[in-house]
Structure formats: C-alpha cells, structure tokens
C-alpha cells in the first residue's frame, strides 16, 4: 500500500448516541458506538471491517458518509475535512462517496421504478439531460448484469440478489471514488453472495473504486479485502494487510474471532479459543482496554490503561498491551 | 383484467419477470385489488348516485328548496310535493335533492382541508423530530383533550352567524389531530428504512425526501383515513345541523330536514318527511365506509380487520 494516494484519513473519530431518561428527557449517558477510531484508506484498495453485532461497524460507515454527524474527530476525504461540513456543502462531495446497503428489501423505495431509483442521484446532482440520464441508466443496468427492460419495473418484482445489483447500480450512478458496503451480501444466499462479490470486484477494476467493506462474515472479508480492520466495542482492535491478519493475528480478540471460523478439513486440529461472557454494553464500556473482561490474556495494566494502536511490522497495527511499540503511527 | 392476470401467472421462469408488458406499480396493484372488492364497488355505485344527484340538483328538484309557503305546512305526500312539505311549507323532495349537495360538499371539503393540515403537520413532526416534533405533538395533545362537541358548539355559539365555508373551517380545525398522529407514526416507521438513508446519501433535499420517498409510501394510510374521515364529516354536519348548531336554516341539509320533523305529529303522521333524509345519510356514510374498508384491504393486504 505504500506509495499509494490516501483517499480517506480518519482521525480519532467518535460517534456517541445520547441516552435520554427521566421525565425531562435529560441526557443520562452515552452509547459509544464508535470511540476513537483512526485509520487510513488508500486509493483503489478494499478495507474490510469485521466485528460482531454491536461493535459499531455500521455506525462507522454511516458516520464516514455523514449520514450521522460525528461527535468528535476528523474525516479527511481527498484532503478536505468533511466532518463538520453543512449539508449544502456536503452535496457536491456526496457524489464521490456512496453506500450499498445491507437489506435489499428495505434499501429500494418500493414506490419508484428501478429506472427512477437509479436516475435519482443524477436528478439531485443536476448534471445530465434527460436523454443522457436514460442512456446512463441502461448502461448501468447492463454493467451490473440486469436487462435494460428492468428500468420500468418495480423493486417488488426482483429477488434479493437482483435488488442488491440495483442498489449497486444506484451507488455507481455518479461515478463515485469511494463506496461503503454495509454488509452488502449478508442478507443473500451463499450462491448469490459470490455473484455479488465478484460483481463488486469487477466493478472495482472498471471504475477504479475504493471500498470500505463492512461484514461479520470473515470468509467474505478474506475474499474481497486487501486490508482488514477488526472492531470491538466501538474501537479498532487490530488493522493490517489481509494475509497478516489471517495468518498472524496479534490481538487476542482477532485470534479468538479467527479460531471460530469453521475450516472444511477434518484432519486439521485446531485450538478453539472460547471467549467468556457477553459483549459488554457500549453505554457502559469497561475501563482500560475494552476487551479485558473477556480477554484470556488480560493482566493488571489492561484494567486501567487504554491501549493505543501500535505498529507491529508491515503495516500491521494492534491495540493491545501484550505488544510493545516499534514506532507510533 | 382477468386475461391480464392469467398472462402474469404464465410467467416463463427463465425470463425471471423480465416480460415485455408494462409492469404495475404498487399503487396500481392496490387499485386492482380494490376493484375486486364487491362491497367497495357497491359503495362506489351508491355514492356515484348521490354525487350525480348533487351535480344535477337543479334539473332533478321540482321546487325551489328554500321557497316557503305558509298556506301548505306539514303537507302530506302528494303529486305536487312528492315527500310532502316541512313546517314552513318548503318542498321536502327538493330539499332532499339539494341536501346531498351540502352534505357531500361539506364532507369532501372538510376532509380535504383536514388532510392538508394533518399531512403537513404530521410530515413535519415525523420527518424533523426533536423540538419540532415535540411542539406539534403537544398542540395535538391539547386539541385531543378538548371535548370535540363542546368545543365546536362553543365556537359556533361565539360566531353567532355561520355559513358553509366557516363551518368547514371549524370542522377541519378541530379534526386534524388524529390524522396528524397517524401520518407522524407512518413517517417514523419509514424513517429508519435504508432507502431513506440512500436518498440522504445522494444529497437529496429534505423537500425531495419528503415528497418522493416518504409521502408515496404513506399514501395508503392517507387515502384510507381521508375516506373514512369524509363519512365522519357528513355525520358531524348532519348531527350539528340536527341540534341547530350546523348550517343555519333555510339552507337545505339532511340534518336540517330531520330537525324540521322533530315533533310527534310529523314523526307519526309524516314518515315521508324524515325517513328519506335519514336513509340518505345512512346510505352515504355506509357506502363511503365500504369504500374506505376496501381501500384499506387493498393497500394493506396483510391486515385482517
């Protein structure tokens, strides 16, 4: 990844949701959905973000697109800090960053025809004539593997995989540079998953796209990603190149996560790391390292001091007190 | 229609729904379901008769509905006055015919006005949430705790003289809270859908999101409630006219006609004076309710009321 242009820099990003209570609806606490996350995204790469439910990975994606306003921190997209831009100033930037959603049955407006759905971004951004828009819609439908006749149909006439293709076509309409896939294949059958994943890979080459791929399926992430980030309770536990994360996981959480992946090989003996307890509540996260309550390797320091992301060779960073810093990021 | 449906059923599975014929939007599908509902069709037929009577009242009526004739009061049915005459000697049949005009106008206009207020406030509350939502909902609560009848009676008593326009405004201003709450609830359930996030992510304006994404998906509840509300409005108008707080005499309304017959002599001796307006109210409200129920089943086929 060295030598490549940085498309996106995320610095100490935080997204807290207030918890209201009492008669007067006063804020009595915060859910720390994304807590102090920093990473870089390079042009043309795919960064996979994995984590269990409630780890804040979807919130991270939505905050990066400014669908949610960040509580604190910076989102630097192509050199500009977009974390505090107004909606009006965000509009021209939005055509460069798009999202493919998780639920293909909720992500398409049931009252609009497929043509209208794909055309809408062009209408909002007001860049093309009617004829150009129509040609573009047909072109995009073909690119994602649907017939041009789909234009006049409505979402209810399509299957989940086809709908996801429509969602991808909509995201591609404005020729974005950056696409966030918020678990784009987790709602699909396994056979359809691979089709959609391959489509996304092909489109990445055709359109020179950068992906942030959010998933809880480690196999899917391994397939599509160049680098992988592991999230736990709103924090980035470990981030690094795919082969390093999968072959040499450093963080105890990553190790536990990877040991849970079933391997289709009866001969191979594996040691399964079983985590104790439940995911703690993000409204009341543990002090010190958020993972210490379930970590098999936890020691005294983990209970008091929050670990920083430290460099561990070849672009691999880990937030764990078991390792000592080579150099800070 | 039947043949259309047959064609749809004979889909080639390999084609995967990619047939050449025009596909139907959810709204068109709902309309198709609606037209299969027998009761709703009966409702439409009956209501159409009343609408036609209202439109051609001038041609159908045999007398001037407000022309009194003190020499022929409380007359029985005759070839001259088909349904007799009221206490001021006005022709009951002509009043019945013109009464449909008033009832339908009041019902429809009051409904339209209520929907306008309800949808606007409900959309604002449901879309923006937060302080705007709190403010609108508190006003709504305030309106809901006022006893409707007493409130309307008080306003009408204060205004002393009222006409149809003022009457419609009063009814609409007091009837919007329920619809506002329904629209707000619909918006709240839509707000978390991913296609709304999708619209935001392409930079669509609030105006566009409300009109292109929220309202078309809320059209079912809006139409159903508007229709049922129209029936309620007609009842309210008749009821208020009956107790003398509605459209003032001598304007012919069905409620006014029944008031005219509220004495023992006419109740016993002249059923032709009060039975027809009563039946007219019953049939109109019943047919509108049939249509409303049909629309509800058509827009939300999963619910079984």
UniProtKB/TrEMBL annotation, chain A:
Where does the ABC transporter domain lie? 8-258
Q: Does the keyword Secreted apply?
A: no
Q: Does the keyword Nucleotide-binding apply?
A: yes
Database matches in InterPro entries: AAA+_ATPase, ABC_transp_ATP-bind, ABC_transporter-like_ATP-bd, ABC_transporter-like_CS, Oligopep_ABC_C, P-loop_NTPase
Note one Pfam family from the annotation.
oligo_HPY
Q: Tell me, what is one Gene Ontology molecular-function annotation carried by this entry?
A: ATP binding
- Alphabetical keyword list: ATP-binding, Nucleotide-binding, Transport
Similarity comment text for this entry: Belongs to the ABC transporter superfamily.
Q: What is this protein called?
A: Dipeptide ABC transporter ATP-binding protein
Q: Name its species.
A: Evansella alkalicola
Automatic annotation (TrEMBL), chain B:
Q: How does it sit in the membrane?
A: Multi-pass membrane protein
**Keywords carried by this UniProt record:** Cell membrane, Membrane, Transmembrane, Transmembrane helix, Transport
Superkingdom is Bacteria
Question: InterPro entries from the xrefs?
Answer: BP-dependent_transpt_permease, MetI-like, MetI-like_sf, Oligopeptide_permease_AppC, OppC_N
List the Pfam families. BPD_transp_1, OppC_N
**Residue ranges of the TM segments:** 39-57, 102-127, 139-158, 164-183, 222-247, 273-292
Q: Where is the signal peptide?
A: none
Residue ranges constituting the ABC transmembrane type-1 domain according to the UniProt record: 100-292
Q: Which family does it belong to?
A: Belongs to the binding-protein-dependent transport system permease family.
Q: Which protein is depicted?
A: ABC transporter permease
